Amino acid sequence: MSEFRAKTPKRRNITTTVSNYRKHKDNLKIDYLDRCGYCNSIDTWRFVWFEIDHFVPQKYLKTIKDTDYINLVYACRSCNNSKRAKWPTKDEKKHNENDEGFIDPCDDEYANQFDRTGNGRILPTTNIGHWMYKALKLYKPQHEIIWSLDELDKLIQEIEDILKTKPNNQLKDKLLDCYREFMAYSKKLSNEGL
């Protein structure tokens, strides 16, 4: 098992009034480290669309405005569509109760609800983690595939950095073959979608 994510995203205290919550997208992208707050997928792949989720769904907002930055989550379309207006407590101030509901992805406790297998599959580790896992459909294969592509991309970059300091033509040729296969695979996924 490996950790679910390396770093917990943290929202800045942005209180700027905006006419539409979508105007916060650039700031959310920064605060969420270019990753989905829920599944931790990176937003560099053309086949993964990113949106803005209202952590407390809009239909349950009483004192929070739908444009309040503190309630917004940078989310991949899969997680955003899976979560929708799920909110078992129906109370904007109560995120979860009796192991049902959500933990804010910017809370350090969020990552403690999940682990990853060696190939990137997400597994719940707590009761509330299991509830979120099902509610967000974190069992979908795309989360594992995107994680694997991201890990492979990091490995390729690491090898390239080594080659800059210690040139090795045989290793370079193998790296290029690996990289070409990687790009072909990611292009295929982009064209076919997940």
Automatic annotation (TrEMBL):
Domain HNH: 36-85
Assigned keywords, A-Z: Endonuclease, Hydrolase, Nuclease
Residue spans crossing the bilayer: none
CDD domains cross-referenced by the UniProt entry: HNHc
Stated name of the protein: HNH endonuclease
Keyword Nuclease found: yes
Domain of life: Bacteria
Species of the source: Sungkyunkwania multivorans
GO molecular function term, any single one: endonuclease activity
